[in-house]
Design goal:
This protein is α+β, with helices and mostly antiparallel strands and 204 residues long. The chain has a domain of 63 residues: Arc Repressor Mutant, subunit A (Orthogonal Bundle). Helices cover 38% and strands 20% of the residues. It has seven helices and six strands; from the N terminus they run αααααββαββαββ. The strands form three sheets. Strands 1-2 form a two-stranded antiparallel ribbon. Strands 3-4 form a two-stranded antiparallel sheet. Strands 5-6 form a two-stranded antiparallel sheet. A hairpin with a 5-residue loop joins strand 5 and strand 6. Helix 1 packs across helix 4, helix 2 crosses helix 3 and helix 5 runs antiparallel to helix 7.
Length: 204
């Protein structure tokens, strides 16, 4: 951090702590400032030009060290937006409990779906349509794109719940980066009279 020579030891530590999560109060406490006045101290520190300069320098050095740039972040968003979510979980049509001679009557309550067999086209019960079966992938064998999407899983009373990254949020981030939300839409009548007020959609 090139600006650390202009800072006191506490200030330099505050800068390093602050860029971890941009929580001023926590950074001030961890840098050795009083816990009772940490929030106020953080506010004062963040108003100082040389502290801001040091923070900007520390962030720039971290980006360089980790090779983080806008192109890399945009690519990650695009990978999430275009990933095949079926790699994580999917609904398959498989053999029902009556396919391939499994159960012979509708009263058989023990009949189960067979996920390893395709539906029997001549099945008297499902008429060849099969039954829905939810497949959860082995997350240790996901593709790089699917690993970006996968956020975790947990067991619930309804079964396994898989959490994924928000595809629409990723698309929104890509669109914002490309400046796609700056369209002006005007509605006019046949004679050119405005039917509705002009609508400008713009995200900064």
């Amino acid at each position: 951090m090139s600006q650390s020579k202009k800072l006191t030891a506490k200030q330099a530590l505050f800068v390093l702590e602050y860029i971890k999560d941009f929580n001023g109060g926590r950074a001030a406490r961890d840098a050795g400032f009083s816990a009772k006045t940490a929030d106020q101290q953080a506010w004062k520190l963040l108003q100082m030009p040389h502290i801001q300069q040091a923070i900007d320098g520390a962030i720039a050095e971290r980006k360089e060290r980790l090779r983080i740039d806008a192109d890399n972040v945009l690519w990650q968003w695009w990978q999430i937006a275009t990933a095949d979510y079926n790699e994580l979980s999917s609904v398959k049509r498989v053999a029902c409990g009556w396919c391939w001679g499994g159960a012979l009557t509708d009263e058989d309550e023990t009949a189960v779906v067979n996920p390893n067999e395709a539906p029997d086209p001549d099945c008297p019960k499902c008429k060849g349509e099969g039954a829905p079966y939810v497949h959860i992938a082995d997350t240790t064998k996901l593709s790089p794109a699917a690993k970006l999407v996968y956020q975790g899983a947990k067991a619930t009373k309804f079964g396994i719940e898989v959490t994924t990254a928000d595809r629409m949020k990723a698309l929104d981030n890509v669109a914002r980066h490309l400046g796609m939300f700056k369209d002006k839409v005007e509605h006019t009548g046949a004679d050119g009279a405005e039917l509705f007020p002009s609508i400008t959609v713009k995200y900064e």
